Amino acid sequence: MSQLSFEFPDSSVKQFDEGITAEDIAKSIAVSLSKKAVAAKVDDHFVNKDEPLHKGGKIEIVTADSDDGLSVLRETAAQILKMAIANEFKNIHFGESAADDDGFFVDTDKPDTQISVDQLADLSQSMHKIIKEDLPIKVVFLSAADANEAIGDDPYQKELVKQNEVDGQVKFFQIGDFKSIAEGAVLPSTGKVKIFKLLSVAGAYWQGKSSNPMLQRIYATAFNKQKELDADLEKRQEAHERDHRVIGNQLDLFFVDPKVGAGLPYWMPNGATIRRTIERYIVDKEVTNGYEHVYTPVLANLDLYKQSGHWAHYREDMFPPMDMGDGEMLELRPMNCPSHIQIYNHHIRSYRELPLRIAELGMMHRYEKSGALSGLQRVREMTLNDGHTFVALDQIQEEFKNILNLMVDVYHDFDINDYTFRLSYRDPQNTEKYFDDDEMWTRAQTMLKGAMDEMGLQYTEAEGEAAFYGPKLDVQTKTALGNEETLSTIQLDFMLPERFDLHYVGEDGKQHRPVMIHRGLVSTMERFVAYLTEIYKGAFPTWLAPHQVKIIPVSQDKHGDYAKKINEQLRKLKIRSSVETRAEKMGYLIRDAQTHKIPYTLVVGDEEVNGNSVSVRRYGEKDTQSESLDGFVDEIQKDIASYSREDNQ
Q: What NCBIfam families does the database record attribute to this sequence (predicted)?
């Protein structure tokens, strides 16, 4: 019998007879380990713990209490769900299924009507029945011909058979008479799954392509303990309440119309007000800090992006070029930097102009797959708060510090405090993704690191996260639900000035090559508004709120004129206010203002008219407070001027 060689996580290597199982390997290490084992990973591929092994490699024993162990549990639950669906619906077809950090899902298709959310309870009962029977789950290998016979006329499974065939065989999981194409590893029997929850249903394109049929995706999750499921459900409820798509609908901020296209949001007046306020803030902030704002076209000749390198390195994320019929090929821009280079190159530049800071709220387009689009977070059309600084070599570190200080100042005004710094370097082995110039990369990475060290800031280093043309500082922030995403970047670039032959005339009268610094303070308007919506849970601070004041007269006949007078006074001060005119009960109107998360609700009746005062109810508070009108106006103006920060008042 031939021997197989396995390398363990501690780098030790052991030999075993071919056909040994992961469970036996675990037992050779420790009996206690074999009892905890639920599967193994060989060369990062899951295998069942009782599955005979015929190839060696790097091996890791997967225990129930690990993240991988949770994936095995969820994969098992997915197989049980498939069997329950097959039992309930005889004409069902299966698409893809997967287990991940968020739970698991199963895609299905029915010729008549799709599975509805109302049927999840019955499917859950069917799963409990299968679990109670504690049926063994076996691994079987079928030839391609036998596999196609086993799956019948299911067109999606036939495609998966082709994709999963290895050495003429396809791996299946079998529970009783039910067979399903195997992905990952599963527990030895259905009875091992105790705690699960079917969550929701939604449409999903077959294999994520919008040109493919729309299937019905059932989302679910599973855990080892009930308290873990309860905590997860609580987190999901919080996620739902903070979801910018849900809040966007509640507050009428934006919508996406399938008639126009996925990933192309419409900004409603409320959302447009928030966005416009942010844009005005950013432009004013940048102009104050020495940036010159420009407008550049969203279309450019394809040759521009070939020269910049975006076409070679970024082509899959760009829309197809448009043939203008006369040999000219126009491209929707995926990046603004080549446009700002043209601004720089339009004049002969002197060292006296450096640093030259160019900024724009630049619209860009990205070729995103339909399955990846999500509200405002992932879109096909976006407006980036973009800026590029052209500097002399000896100005790099000082300009880097200026940009970083500006970022921190902006974060303070938006009350963003939870962020970290990451220096993103190239992967020197990946010469296809990254511009091949070792000297340039070493020089740029050293300068970026030196600037961070000089400022005394803590940071992590990440290889393989750089832009294709240079290293960058990524500012990583936590979303409202604890997920990490990149909010801002500062990128150092020696490559594009070289490619576009940029120069400035130095003090010595000779031509010198500038260095280009790319930076985005708050990402795109779309992603930033989504981020803020979830952070604030829709309760925007007064300076950002689309409606800052709602004025409710107790009686339209008696107090309506006074309400209108207050409204006119506030609007002249550029405060976003309106008068409630609906003939509803007072309690309902106040609750409605709270539901729409308006910072200030003013109630005016006889007492307020006679005393030139207002009864103020702030968002989130139950009580009202009587104030003079002048006092309230002074208060809200300070609130807005200080960006609603208490420590600035």
A: thrS
